[in-house]
Amino acid sequence: MKLKNRHLLGLEGVSKEDIGLILDTGQSFKEVLERPIKKVPPLQGKTIVNLFFESSTRTRISFELAERRLSADVVSFATAGSSVSKGETLKDTARNIEAMKIDMVVIRHSSPGAAHFLSRVVEANVINAGDGAHEHPTQALLDMMTLKAKYGSLEGVRVCIVGDILHSRVARSNIYGLITMGAKVSVCGPATLIPRGIEKLGVQVSHSLEDVIPHVDVLNVLRIQVERQQSGFFPSLREYHRYFGVTKEKVSKAAKPITIMHPGPINRDVELSADLADSEHSVILEQVTNGVAVRMAVLYLLGAA
Predict the structure, then answer these.
(1) Could you tell me if residue 37 is inside a domain?
(2) Is the same domain home to 74 and 207?
Protein backbone atom coordinates (compact mmCIF):
# COMPACT_ATOMS: atom_id res chain seq x y z
CA MET A 1 0.00 0.00 0.00
CA LYS A 2 1.06 3.60 -0.47
CA LEU A 3 -0.02 7.07 0.60
CA LYS A 4 -2.27 9.18 -1.63
CA ASN A 5 0.22 12.07 -1.60
CA ARG A 6 3.90 11.79 -2.53
CA HIS A 7 4.87 14.31 0.16
CA LEU A 8 4.09 14.70 3.88
CA LEU A 9 3.72 18.45 4.31
CA GLY A 10 1.20 18.44 7.17
CA LEU A 11 -1.80 16.55 8.51
CA GLU A 12 -4.44 19.05 7.41
CA GLY A 13 -6.52 17.26 4.83
CA VAL A 14 -4.75 13.91 5.20
CA SER A 15 -7.32 11.10 5.16
CA LYS A 16 -8.16 8.78 8.03
CA GLU A 17 -7.02 5.87 5.86
CA ASP A 18 -3.58 7.38 5.24
CA ILE A 19 -3.05 8.26 8.91
CA GLY A 20 -4.15 4.76 9.89
CA LEU A 21 -1.73 3.26 7.35
CA ILE A 22 1.17 5.28 8.76
CA LEU A 23 0.33 4.31 12.35
CA ASP A 24 -0.03 0.61 11.52
CA THR A 25 3.21 0.63 9.52
CA GLY A 26 4.91 2.43 12.40
CA GLN A 27 3.81 -0.33 14.76
CA SER A 28 5.39 -2.91 12.45
CA PHE A 29 8.65 -0.98 12.41
CA LYS A 30 8.58 -0.68 16.19
CA GLU A 31 8.83 -4.48 16.27
CA VAL A 32 11.86 -4.21 13.97
CA LEU A 33 13.50 -1.82 16.44
CA GLU A 34 13.17 -4.44 19.17
CA ARG A 35 15.19 -7.02 17.21
CA PRO A 36 18.91 -7.61 17.85
CA ILE A 37 19.61 -6.45 14.26
CA LYS A 38 17.56 -3.30 13.73
CA LYS A 39 18.43 -2.58 10.11
CA VAL A 40 16.17 -3.48 7.16
CA PRO A 41 16.79 -2.87 3.43
CA PRO A 42 13.70 -1.10 1.95
CA LEU A 43 15.49 2.18 1.16
CA GLN A 44 18.83 0.73 0.14
CA GLY A 45 20.16 2.80 -2.76
CA LYS A 46 17.99 5.82 -1.86
CA THR A 47 19.64 9.08 -0.80
CA ILE A 48 17.94 11.30 1.76
CA VAL A 49 19.07 14.79 2.72
CA ASN A 50 18.09 16.38 6.02
CA LEU A 51 17.77 20.15 5.54
CA PHE A 52 17.62 21.62 9.03
CA PHE A 53 17.50 25.41 8.92
CA GLU A 54 16.53 25.39 12.62
CA SER A 55 18.33 23.55 15.37
CA SER A 56 16.47 20.49 16.64
CA THR A 57 18.56 17.74 18.13
CA ARG A 58 15.70 15.33 18.90
CA THR A 59 13.89 15.50 15.57
CA ARG A 60 17.09 15.46 13.51
CA ILE A 61 18.54 12.45 15.34
CA SER A 62 15.20 10.64 15.16
CA PHE A 63 15.01 11.12 11.39
CA GLU A 64 18.66 10.13 10.91
CA LEU A 65 18.14 6.95 12.92
CA ALA A 66 14.99 6.11 10.96
CA GLU A 67 16.76 6.67 7.65
CA ARG A 68 19.77 4.54 8.60
CA ARG A 69 17.54 1.76 9.98
CA LEU A 70 15.96 1.60 6.50
CA SER A 71 19.45 1.39 4.88
CA ALA A 72 19.23 4.76 3.11
CA ASP A 73 22.27 6.90 2.34
CA VAL A 74 21.96 9.96 4.58
CA VAL A 75 23.27 13.49 4.10
CA SER A 76 22.67 15.96 6.94
CA PHE A 77 22.83 19.64 6.08
CA ALA A 78 23.15 22.43 8.65
CA THR A 79 22.94 26.11 7.75
CA ALA A 80 25.89 27.18 9.91
CA GLY A 81 28.89 27.59 7.62
CA SER A 82 26.84 26.72 4.54
CA SER A 83 26.02 28.76 1.46
CA VAL A 84 22.74 29.76 3.15
CA SER A 85 24.74 31.92 5.55
CA LYS A 86 26.20 33.61 2.46
CA GLY A 87 22.78 34.54 1.10
CA GLU A 88 21.79 31.51 -0.97
CA THR A 89 18.01 31.11 -1.22
CA LEU A 90 16.04 28.03 -0.23
CA LYS A 91 15.18 27.45 -3.89
CA ASP A 92 18.84 27.58 -4.94
CA THR A 93 19.85 25.28 -2.10
CA ALA A 94 17.13 22.80 -3.02
CA ARG A 95 17.98 22.79 -6.72
CA ASN A 96 21.67 22.31 -6.04
CA ILE A 97 20.96 19.42 -3.71
CA GLU A 98 18.58 17.83 -6.19
CA ALA A 99 21.23 18.09 -8.90
CA MET A 100 23.13 15.62 -6.72
CA LYS A 101 20.28 13.12 -7.41
CA ILE A 102 18.65 13.17 -3.97
CA ASP A 103 15.53 10.98 -3.63
CA MET A 104 13.96 12.50 -0.50
CA VAL A 105 14.28 15.73 1.48
CA VAL A 106 13.42 16.20 5.15
CA ILE A 107 13.14 19.93 5.90
CA ARG A 108 12.85 21.96 9.07
CA HIS A 109 12.53 25.71 8.58
CA SER A 110 11.46 28.76 10.57
CA SER A 111 9.15 29.99 7.79
CA PRO A 112 5.60 28.60 7.58
CA GLY A 113 5.05 27.06 4.16
CA ALA A 114 8.73 26.29 3.49
CA ALA A 115 8.01 22.58 2.98
CA HIS A 116 5.13 23.36 0.60
CA PHE A 117 7.39 25.68 -1.39
CA LEU A 118 10.12 23.06 -1.58
CA SER A 119 7.68 20.42 -2.84
CA ARG A 120 6.86 22.68 -5.80
CA VAL A 121 10.47 23.21 -6.91
CA VAL A 122 12.04 19.76 -6.48
CA GLU A 123 11.19 16.32 -7.82
CA ALA A 124 12.19 14.53 -4.62
CA ASN A 125 9.69 13.47 -1.94
CA VAL A 126 9.46 16.17 0.76
CA ILE A 127 8.77 15.55 4.45
CA ASN A 128 8.01 18.49 6.72
CA ALA A 129 9.97 18.25 9.98
CA GLY A 130 8.45 21.52 11.25
CA ASP A 131 7.83 24.81 9.47
CA GLY A 132 7.52 27.87 11.66
CA ALA A 133 4.29 27.87 13.66
CA HIS A 134 2.49 25.94 10.92
CA GLU A 135 2.78 22.14 11.25
CA HIS A 136 4.98 19.33 12.54
CA PRO A 137 3.24 16.22 11.18
CA THR A 138 5.60 13.47 12.32
CA GLN A 139 5.46 14.71 15.92
CA ALA A 140 1.67 14.46 15.85
CA LEU A 141 1.87 11.01 14.22
CA LEU A 142 4.18 9.70 16.94
CA ASP A 143 1.84 11.18 19.57
CA MET A 144 -1.11 9.40 17.95
CA MET A 145 0.83 6.15 17.66
CA THR A 146 1.60 6.34 21.39
CA LEU A 147 -2.05 6.93 22.28
CA LYS A 148 -3.32 4.22 19.94
CA ALA A 149 -0.99 1.71 21.59
CA LYS A 150 -2.33 2.70 25.00
CA TYR A 151 -6.06 2.97 24.25
CA GLY A 152 -6.42 0.57 21.31
CA SER A 153 -8.12 3.24 19.21
CA LEU A 154 -8.16 7.03 18.99
CA GLU A 155 -11.94 7.11 18.55
CA GLY A 156 -13.48 9.00 21.47
CA VAL A 157 -10.20 9.55 23.36
CA ARG A 158 -10.36 12.93 25.10
CA VAL A 159 -7.14 14.86 24.57
CA CYS A 160 -6.35 18.33 25.91
CA ILE A 161 -3.36 20.21 24.52
CA VAL A 162 -2.02 22.55 27.20
CA GLY A 163 0.14 25.63 26.80
CA ASP A 164 1.27 27.90 23.98
CA ILE A 165 -1.20 26.93 21.26
CA LEU A 166 -0.66 30.22 19.40
CA HIS A 167 2.93 29.49 18.37
CA SER A 168 2.78 25.69 18.31
CA ARG A 169 3.13 23.65 15.11
CA VAL A 170 2.82 20.52 17.27
CA ALA A 171 -0.62 21.63 18.47
CA ARG A 172 -1.88 22.29 14.95
CA SER A 173 -0.79 18.93 13.56
CA ASN A 174 -2.20 17.13 16.59
CA ILE A 175 -5.54 18.89 16.22
CA TYR A 176 -5.83 17.98 12.54
CA GLY A 177 -4.73 14.38 13.04
CA LEU A 178 -6.61 13.58 16.24
CA ILE A 179 -9.91 15.00 15.02
CA THR A 180 -9.58 13.07 11.75
CA MET A 181 -9.10 9.88 13.77
CA GLY A 182 -12.16 10.54 15.92
CA ALA A 183 -10.61 11.88 19.11
CA LYS A 184 -12.22 14.70 21.10
CA VAL A 185 -9.75 17.57 21.32
CA SER A 186 -9.61 20.61 23.57
CA VAL A 187 -6.96 23.27 24.19
CA CYS A 188 -6.11 25.04 27.42
CA GLY A 189 -3.86 28.00 28.13
CA PRO A 190 -3.76 31.72 28.83
CA ALA A 191 -6.04 33.75 26.55
CA THR A 192 -2.95 35.45 25.10
CA LEU A 193 -1.63 32.07 23.88
CA ILE A 194 -4.84 30.75 22.29
CA PRO A 195 -5.38 31.71 18.61
CA ARG A 196 -8.59 33.53 17.82
CA GLY A 197 -11.15 31.38 16.06
CA ILE A 198 -9.43 28.09 16.87
CA GLU A 199 -12.87 26.67 17.72
CA LYS A 200 -13.48 26.51 13.97
CA LEU A 201 -11.04 23.58 13.85
CA GLY A 202 -13.41 21.58 16.04
CA VAL A 203 -11.76 22.03 19.42
CA GLN A 204 -13.09 23.27 22.74
CA VAL A 205 -11.23 26.09 24.48
CA SER A 206 -10.60 26.49 28.20
CA HIS A 207 -8.54 28.90 30.26
CA SER A 208 -8.69 26.80 33.44
CA LEU A 209 -6.63 23.63 33.83
CA GLU A 210 -8.63 22.63 36.90
CA ASP A 211 -11.83 22.72 34.86
CA VAL A 212 -10.32 20.55 32.12
CA ILE A 213 -8.69 17.79 34.17
CA PRO A 214 -11.88 15.97 35.31
CA HIS A 215 -13.03 15.57 31.70
CA VAL A 216 -9.98 14.32 29.78
CA ASP A 217 -7.99 11.12 29.29
CA VAL A 218 -4.79 12.76 28.05
CA LEU A 219 -2.87 15.96 28.68
CA ASN A 220 -0.39 16.80 25.92
CA VAL A 221 1.75 19.46 27.57
CA LEU A 222 3.59 21.87 25.27
CA ARG A 223 6.97 23.40 26.04
CA ILE A 224 6.83 27.02 27.09
CA GLN A 225 9.45 29.02 25.24
CA VAL A 226 11.05 31.26 27.82
CA GLU A 227 11.32 34.15 25.36
CA ARG A 228 7.51 34.36 25.32
CA GLN A 229 7.67 35.84 28.82
CA GLN A 230 9.70 38.80 27.58
CA SER A 231 7.10 39.29 24.83
CA GLY A 232 4.40 39.89 27.43
CA PHE A 233 2.24 36.82 26.76
CA PHE A 234 2.20 36.03 30.50
CA PRO A 235 3.54 37.85 33.58
CA SER A 236 6.20 35.35 34.73
CA LEU A 237 7.19 31.68 34.58
CA ARG A 238 6.14 31.33 38.20
CA GLU A 239 2.72 32.73 37.40
CA TYR A 240 2.38 30.43 34.39
CA HIS A 241 3.31 27.38 36.47
CA ARG A 242 0.80 28.33 39.14
CA TYR A 243 -2.17 28.39 36.76
CA PHE A 244 -1.17 26.17 33.83
CA GLY A 245 1.69 24.03 35.08
CA VAL A 246 0.65 20.35 35.11
CA THR A 247 1.44 18.89 38.53
CA LYS A 248 0.67 15.73 40.49
CA GLU A 249 -1.53 17.72 42.84
CA LYS A 250 -3.69 18.98 39.98
CA VAL A 251 -4.05 15.66 38.14
CA SER A 252 -4.82 13.83 41.39
CA LYS A 253 -8.28 15.43 41.21
CA ALA A 254 -9.11 13.50 38.05
CA ALA A 255 -11.67 10.71 38.25
CA LYS A 256 -9.20 8.27 36.68
CA PRO A 257 -5.48 8.29 35.80
CA ILE A 258 -4.52 10.78 33.09
CA THR A 259 -1.88 10.05 30.45
CA ILE A 260 0.84 12.71 30.35
CA MET A 261 2.58 13.56 27.08
CA HIS A 262 5.20 16.14 26.11
CA PRO A 263 6.99 16.71 22.77
CA GLY A 264 10.22 17.65 24.58
CA PRO A 265 12.47 19.11 25.65
CA ILE A 266 10.76 19.69 29.01
CA ASN A 267 11.11 22.81 31.13
CA ARG A 268 10.79 20.90 34.39
CA ASP A 269 8.64 22.58 37.01
CA VAL A 270 7.46 25.18 34.52
CA GLU A 271 4.88 23.56 32.21
CA LEU A 272 5.26 20.11 33.81
CA SER A 273 6.41 19.07 37.27
CA ALA A 274 9.49 16.85 37.41
CA ASP A 275 7.84 14.15 39.50
CA LEU A 276 4.93 13.84 37.06
CA ALA A 277 7.23 13.75 34.03
CA ASP A 278 8.98 10.74 35.57
CA SER A 279 5.84 9.06 36.89
CA GLU A 280 3.94 5.99 35.73
CA HIS A 281 1.41 8.31 34.08
CA SER A 282 4.02 9.66 31.65
CA VAL A 283 4.50 8.17 28.16
CA ILE A 284 7.20 10.66 27.19
CA LEU A 285 9.95 8.06 26.65
CA GLU A 286 7.53 5.93 24.62
CA GLN A 287 6.95 8.97 22.43
CA VAL A 288 10.69 9.12 21.71
CA THR A 289 10.83 5.43 20.73
CA ASN A 290 7.70 5.75 18.61
CA GLY A 291 9.21 8.77 16.90
CA VAL A 292 11.83 6.62 15.18
CA ALA A 293 9.25 3.97 14.23
CA VAL A 294 6.69 6.38 12.79
CA ARG A 295 9.36 8.26 10.83
CA MET A 296 10.54 4.93 9.43
CA ALA A 297 6.93 4.34 8.38
CA VAL A 298 6.65 7.70 6.61
CA LEU A 299 9.99 7.30 4.85
CA TYR A 300 9.11 3.76 3.78
CA LEU A 301 5.62 4.60 2.50
CA LEU A 302 6.89 7.60 0.52
CA GLY A 303 10.20 6.24 -0.66
CA ALA A 304 9.88 2.52 -1.15
CA ALA A 305 7.36 2.72 -3.98
Answers:
(1) yes
(2) no
